[in-house]
# Entry
Amino acid sequence: MEKSSVKKEKPEVYFASTAVECLEGEATLPAKFKRMLKKFNLPKRVGNKKVVIKMHFGQELGYTTIHPFFVRLLVQAVKDAGAKSVKIMDGDAKSAVARGYTLEVIGCPVVSCFGKDGKYLYTEKIGFKNLDEVYFSGEAVDAEFFIDLSHLKGHGDCGFGGALKNIAMGIVPNESRRRLHSLEGGLIVDKGKCIFCLKCFKACKNGAIKADKTKREIGFFFHNCTYCQHCLMVCPEKAIKMEDRTFENFSEGMAIVTSKFLQKFKPENLLFINFLMNITIYCDCWGFSTASLVPDIGILGSDDIGAIDTASLDMVKTENLLVNGLPKGRKLLSKGRHLFERIHGKDPYLMLKYLEKYYNCSMNYKLEEIK
# Structure
């Protein structure tokens, strides 16, 4: 299951900063993004190919996903490069409209990863711990060129969300997510601490929490549970805990799933773009947005998933923390070398270290700023 031993040179990571040097349109981020895309020689790479762009549409009251204008610029660049077709996708296409991801706005069809009936899937053998297999998105697997368009943010379960998570959790259905999350352990409730406030019940989007009003007790319906741990994080009494917690197993499982998918493509048929804007404490899947943790940074692009996620993390610095980005009363942990680790208690680089083990990518990189 391990990768080839051939060593990869430091891959290039292109960086378009939000900072402007002068008050001219060509000095602003959209213009820099267009210049960045030219670096990837798209006409040679996507010409006459079916291109799929995977991103997160967000949910409910969330508003900090990637701005539709930038998505439109990317779609137009791919179309201008001669792609046979272009689609943009996420797990639930219905949530796209509320945030402006429509055919009219972005210029291409907006689809579900798993088809209209949710059954457009391929089985992939994994064989790691209790993760025997996962299901991959049919739209993703059948693409001829895959663009991983990710919004960087903190994540209570994964440590952070970037290009890796956008694949490992983004192109698999809930059943596979549940298996992945279960690598980190099981959920238990301390009935002595539970005050039956039902915040966990309201936070669960999957109907996995049962509330017995007579006994004033909650329980789990694990068939529906994805182990996302939203219930754990909203509990004011810390009555819900993970049993036998093993973040290492979860991180390795995420890396293996990502590597299995990426290996279906030639490296020249993959492109990774990370948006370091509206960087919030939690994932877009929470269904609401909070203030930014740090000032907007810009956009990164690379042909290497390890390089782009590492570079993205390196740019998010503790000293740039905006205190309004933390919930009231929340303080940073004393330990941890990264801001996300001091918030969520998990090393965000761990998944990338495992990915280097299974896939030919690199956490080393050369950064080139787009002027």
